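_Per-residue structure_
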Amino acid sequence: MWDYPRPPALAPSTRRVVVRAPGGGDDGGRVVAETAAAVRVLETSHPPTWYVPADAVAPGAVRRSSARSTVCEYKGAATYWDVLTPDGVLEAAAWSYEDPTPSFTGLTGYLAFSPARLECSVDGERVRPQEGGFYGGWVTDDVVGPFKGAPGTLGW
């Protein structure tokens, strides 16, 4: 991931991405989204953030949130989404770019989910969240750090 570009780049993927909400009994949690048509955002010093097409999100699994707002210098203003789980609401656990900057129009109609708040997997491998709580990177065995987000990495 130190070979990833800056500014970031979009990379379509055919790997199987599954996002599950916690709770819901013996099935390992409710499937929130599942696709083999994700897009990764690749950026120097970050594990990739995976975005799934909105039509891959289960009906009724998300609702627009007012709990948070951020702006990315590359992608523009983020729209946040609450994830509705069998056990309650995970506020602002997903985000999208409804009107992204020209370089990121490929993210229009896609949502990203926080692996710190949901169970996310890529080709069956459970994703580990990027440290720090602000960034939404998905750490898998094929992504090598160190990653921005941990204490002492703010100026990277």
Observations:
- The domain at 9-139 is CATH 2.170.150.40 (Metal Binding Protein, Guanine Nucleotide Exchange Factor; Chain A).
- The mean pLDDT is 90.
- Residues 78 and 97 are 5 Å apart (CA to CA).
- The first strand starts at residue 9 and ends at 13.
